[in-house]
């Protein structure tokens, strides 16, 4: 049985600023609690979870114009998976980040939903305070 | 030197499984003796009939609406108030050994402290406290965890993997390959979640919990004050106790429980008289929560399967009783017997064949709602043995622990220290107990609010995906102890219904806003 979960968070920064973090696939572990590392090679990203489980992912969409990032977990217990992060501008310095998880088994969608909710909170915290490893990595990359 | 507190919980145990409560299947001499020497509660009611909300109520002394754990899979915030933290701050040594479940088990990201502590090898973790400071996680300076199987990453599972790897395969797989609660049958009758487990008795989690509790007690100084929550995972399904013990109760000799309606037509008529999710689940057309196997159809449950489940459950109850006996003996050997308070209860009940159903769910009837609760005060306190018939709740436990320790109940606690007899209960206003159910899973939403008062149980339904909010259940516990006659629409008792519904509305705490997120199915 498949299931779909969606989490969202209004973030008090511009959509462009939020997308700078979200659109860089290799920074995921710096704002997603429970992911300890990630490595990107081409359109393949490999993440390692806090439990030590390693999961390969295929990056499907990284669209800076729509500000949409999509990926598919291709290993583990998943018969099917699609992760989607959308960043939508609300005002000049305000945006809405939406993180959706579709999965079979459906139980994993719920687990991912909980984890992505935590990730959006951490993303917002770092962006709004300007402090955190993802922001640091961004600065390093910018300079 | 103050009174020590041994708080014993089981998981999913019915009131009528204890000898002191009239049970005839299990031999429970240890708990029966505690009851004979202390206070036995005949109408102890949980504030939720699933684990995480109910356990959160025990720890916080709050209703689910207040602590916010509205269904399984919702994590209790790390800085939620905790009676263990209150005791710790007043000098008590504090431990939780066994099943915690304030946070989700299904946690591949290792986001939750319970899972991280088990992996760390440390006795506890430093967490944010309700007062804004830092302290041991939820107030416990020793944490050692187990759950219903050796799967996962908790201490018991790690111990089994390290020491008895070959025995792992004997346990029932709680989840199937699609991570649904397993519907596979076993034993002699093919009953769901039953399995003959060749594991050695001393490696089973019941004895492990007792062993680890004794080990912690052994490490204390003689004059330490201590609070130990010893939390047995059984007799919650799966029903897979050590095979060596199954001979204690032959399922073929087990009578069908009083709540099992053998006549099919009568059973279905009773179910049809209740709100529609009862019958929908029975027919396999609706699963509203993750606590029962998705692919299991209750209507397929046979009388022999009910017998076997009850027999195996009784074996697990006996093993717990014997484990408690070992821990009490260890405490006595340390010279603590005179100053030791023992509280025994469970988080919720089990349908165990009532209405042709097993497991649990949004069904506020005695199988799930009437709990064993015994408080054996320290003999040095000089409390007379008594039976309390007025309703009490698990919400009353936290203030009870404060009272034992000589502390005032905290302002955030919503219950009152348990009464010592009916006169005490009446004098202190023990009149009503409230129970909540909320679940939203895979597109199915169910919301119940229940009041137990004056010998009645009254459940109201809020709009969801199955109910329109007009449904209800009303049972007269004295005339209908099996809750087979729903009087919600009976004009003869309309004034009672209206009074109970109004009283329920007057006393329900305001819901926590914003609602806490669901982080996992369990």
List the main descriptive attributes of the protein structure presented here:
heterodimer; A: about 140 residues; alpha+beta; Alpha-D-Glucose-1,6-Bisphosphate, Chain A, domain 4; 7-stranded antiparallel beta sheet; 3 helices; B: about 525 residues; alpha/beta; Alkaline Phosphatase, subunit A; 14 helices; about 15% strand
Look at the structure and name the CATH superfamily of chain B.
Alkaline Phosphatase, subunit A
Q: Looking across the biggest beta sheet of chain A, what order are the strands in?
A: 1-7-6-5-4-3-2
CATH level 3 topology of chain A: Alpha-D-Glucose-1,6-Bisphosphate, Chain A, domain 4
Discrete helix count of chain A: 3
Q: Sheet with the most strands of chain A?
A: 7 strands, antiparallel
> How many strands in all of chain B?
17
Strand composition percent of chain B? 15-25%
Brief summary of the model shown:
The complex is a heterodimer of chains A (143) and B (522). Helices cover 29% and strands 43% of the residues of chain A.
Characterization of the model:
Chain A has helices at about 15-20, 105-130, 135-140, and strands spanning about 5-10, 35-40, 45-50, 55-65, 70-75, 80-90, 95-105. Chain A has about 140 residues and is of the alpha+beta class. Chain A has one domain (about 5-140): Alpha-D-Glucose-1,6-Bisphosphate, Chain A, domain 4. In chain A, a hairpin with a 2-residue loop joins strand 2 and strand 3. The model of chain A has no long low-confidence stretch (mean pLDDT about 95). With about 525 residues, chain B is of the alpha/beta class. Chain B has a single domain, classed as Alkaline Phosphatase, subunit A. Helix content of chain B is about 25%, strand content about 15%. Chain B is built from 14 helices and 17 strands. In chain B, strands 1, 2, 3, 6, 9, 10, 11, 12 and 13 form a nine-stranded mixed β-sheet that branches. A four-stranded antiparallel β-sheet of chain B has the order 14-15-16-17, covered by helices on one side. In chain B, strands 4-5 form a two-stranded antiparallel ribbon. In chain B, helix 7 packs parallel to helix 10 (about 305-335). Chain B is globular, with a radius of gyration of 21 Å. The model of chain B has no long low-confidence stretch (mean pLDDT about 95). Chains A and B meet through helix 2 of A and loops of B.
């Amino acid at each position: 049985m498949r299931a779909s979960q969606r989490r969202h968070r209004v973030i008090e920064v511009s959509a462009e600023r939020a997308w700078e973090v979200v659109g860089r696939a290799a920074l995921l572990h710096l704002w997603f609690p429970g992911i300890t590392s990630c490595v990107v090679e081409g359109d393949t990203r490999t993440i390692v979870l806090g439990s030590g489980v390693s999961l390969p992912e295929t990056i499907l969409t990284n669209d800076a114009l729509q500000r949409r990032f999509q990926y598919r977990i291709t290993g583990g217990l998943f018969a099917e998976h699609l992760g989607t992060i959308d960043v939508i501008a609300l005002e000049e310095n305000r945006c809405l980040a939406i993180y959706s998880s579709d999965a079979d088994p459906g139980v994993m969608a719920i687990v991912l939903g909980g984890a992505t909710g935590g990730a959006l909170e951490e993303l917002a915290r770092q962006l709004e305070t300007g402090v955190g490893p993802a922001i640091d990595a961004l600065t390093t990359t910018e300079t | 030197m103050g009174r020590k507190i041994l708080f014993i919980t089981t998981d999913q145990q019915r009131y009528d499984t204890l000898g002191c409560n009239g049970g005839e299947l299990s031999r429970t001499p240890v708990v029966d003796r505690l009851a004979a020497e202390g206070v036995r509660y005949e109408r102890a009611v949980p504030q939720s009939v699933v684990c995480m909300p109910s356990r959160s109520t025990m720890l916080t002394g709050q209703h689910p609406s207040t602590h916010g754990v509205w269904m399984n899979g919702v994590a209790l915030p790390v800085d939620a108030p905790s009676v263990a933290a209150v005791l710790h701050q007043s000098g008590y040594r504090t431990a939780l050994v066994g099943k915690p479940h304030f946070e989700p088990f299904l946690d591949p990201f290792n986001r939750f402290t319970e899972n991280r502590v088990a992996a760390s090898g440390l006795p506890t973790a430093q967490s944010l406290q309700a007062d804004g400071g830092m302290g041991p996680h939820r107030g416990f300076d020793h944490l050692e965890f187990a759950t219903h199987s050796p799967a996962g990453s908790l201490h018991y599972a790690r111990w089994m993997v390290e020491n008895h790897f070959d025995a792992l395969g004997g346990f029932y797989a709680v989840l199937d390959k699609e991570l649904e609660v397993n519907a596979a049958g076993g034993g002699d009758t093919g009953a769901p979640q039953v399995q003959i487990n060749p594991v050695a008795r001393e490696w089973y989690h019941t004895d492990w919990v007792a062993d680890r509790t004794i080990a912690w007690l052994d490490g204390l100084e003689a004059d330490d004050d201590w609070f130990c929550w010893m939390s047995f995972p059984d007799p919650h399904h799966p029903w897979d106790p050590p095979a060596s013990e199954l001979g204690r109760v032959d399922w073929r000799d087990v009578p069908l429980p009083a709540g099992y309606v053998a006549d099919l037509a009568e059973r279905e008529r009773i179910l049809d008289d209740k709100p529609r999710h009862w019958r929908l689940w029975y027919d396999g057309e609706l699963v509203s929560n993750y606590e029962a196997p998705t692919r299991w159809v209750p209507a397929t449950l046979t009388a022999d399967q009910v017998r076997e489940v009850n027999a195996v459950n009784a074996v697990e109850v006996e093993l717990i009783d014997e484990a408690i006996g070992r821990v009490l003996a260890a405490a006595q050997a340390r010279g603590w017997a005179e100053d030791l308070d023992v509280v025994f209860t469970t988080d919720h009940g089990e349908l165990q064949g009532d209405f042709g159903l097993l497991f649990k769910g949004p069904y506020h009837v005695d199988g799930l709602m009437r709990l064993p609760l015994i408080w054996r005060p320290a003999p040095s306190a000089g409390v007379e043995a008594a039976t309390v018939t007025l309703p009490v709740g698990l919400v009353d436990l936290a203030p009870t622990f404060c009272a034992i320790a000589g502390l005032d109940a905290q302002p955030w606690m919503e219950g009152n220290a348990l009464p010592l007899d009916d006169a005490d209960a009446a004098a202190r206003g023990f009149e009503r107990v409230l129970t909540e159910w909320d679940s939203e899973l895979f597109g199915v939403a169910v919301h119940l609010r229940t009041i137990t008062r004056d010998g009645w149980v009254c459940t109201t339904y809020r709009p969801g995906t199955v109910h329109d909010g007009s449904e209800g259940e009303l049972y007269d516990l004295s005339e209908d102890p099996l809750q087979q006659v729903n009087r919600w629409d009976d004009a003869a008792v309309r004034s009672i219904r209206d009074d109970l519904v109004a009283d329920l509305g007057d006393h329900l705490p305001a819901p926590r806003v914003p609602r806490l997120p669901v982080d996992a199915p369990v």
